[in-house]
Write a structure and sequence with these properties.
Arc Repressor Mutant, subunit A, two-stranded antiparallel sheet
């Protein structure tokens, strides 16, 4: 999704080339992921010549929120507390990040 957001419109080949420059990945893997993103409604595709061109279907914040909810449901059985505790205990948070996190918690409580 990050590549599609950055490029605004992209073919599977575009995404593949961007990802391949950073790590070894198969074209078919990218094709499969693009199909999954389309099925989930995160991207839309249109035909241009012989290729499909993908573009974001929803705002970035909405997609990220949906992906986080899906992750929490799948990995933590829908409970966000264990995920948050894991992140706080395992992540190397700076003092500034800890304070920002505490402020966010306090804002939600109000």
């Amino acid at each position: 999704m990050k590549v599609v957001w950055k490029l605004e419109t992209a073919t599977v080949r575009d995404v593949y080339e961007r990802l391949r420059s950073r790590r070894d990945i198969a074209y078919t893997t990218v094709l499969t992921m693009m199909k999954i993103l389309e099925q989930k409604g995160y991207v839309k595709k249109t035909r241009a010549d012989r290729a499909f061109v993908y573009r974001p279907a929803k705002p970035r914040a909405q997609v990220v929120g949906a992906m986080v909810r899906e992750f929490v449901d799948r990995v933590f059985d829908g409970a966000s507390r264990p995920m948050l505790l894991h992140l706080v205990k395992q992540a190397r948070l700076s003092d500034k990040e800890r304070k920002a996190l505490l402020r966010a918690i306090e804002e939600v409580k109000e």
